[in-house]
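User: Second chain of the day. Same drill as before.
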Amino acid sequence: MATETKTISQLTNLHLVQGTVSVTKRGPFELESGKTLPSVKLRYAIYGEPNPECSNVTLVCHALSGSARVDQWWPDLLERVFDLERECVVCFNIIGSCYGSTSPASLNPATGKPYGASFPQITVRDWVRSQKIALQELGIWR
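Assistant: Same format as last time:
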C-alpha cells in the first residue's frame, strides 16, 4: 500500500493552531531588570497535537525577529525532521516581538497609550521564563 506524501502547506493547514496566551493570568510579570509588566501575552503557533503526557512536544525557539510560524521561516524542519502525525511543535513570539506578543506597540494599561520608548528592557531570561509560563497555561508541562 502506497503512503500519501503531504507537502508542508498541507501539513500546516491540517495541524496549525495559532493563538495568544496570557503570561500574567496569575499576576504581573516581574522582569529581570526589576520592572514589572502588568499584562503580558505571547502569540504562539502549535503544529501537531500534544499527547496526554506531552511527551511528544518540542519547543522551537526562533531568531530575535522571527514569528512563531515555523513553517514560514524553517519549512524544512517541519517537513524533514518532525512527523506532525505523531509529534507536536510549539513556538512562541518573544516579549517585544512585532508579531502579536506584548511589545512597545502594545497599550500600556497605566496610560492607555502604546508603550513606545518606555517599554522596559527585556532579557533572554525573561523570554525563557515567559515561555515556560505560557507552556503551562497551554497545559504543556514537559
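The longest helix spans residues 124-137.

User: Great, on to the next one.
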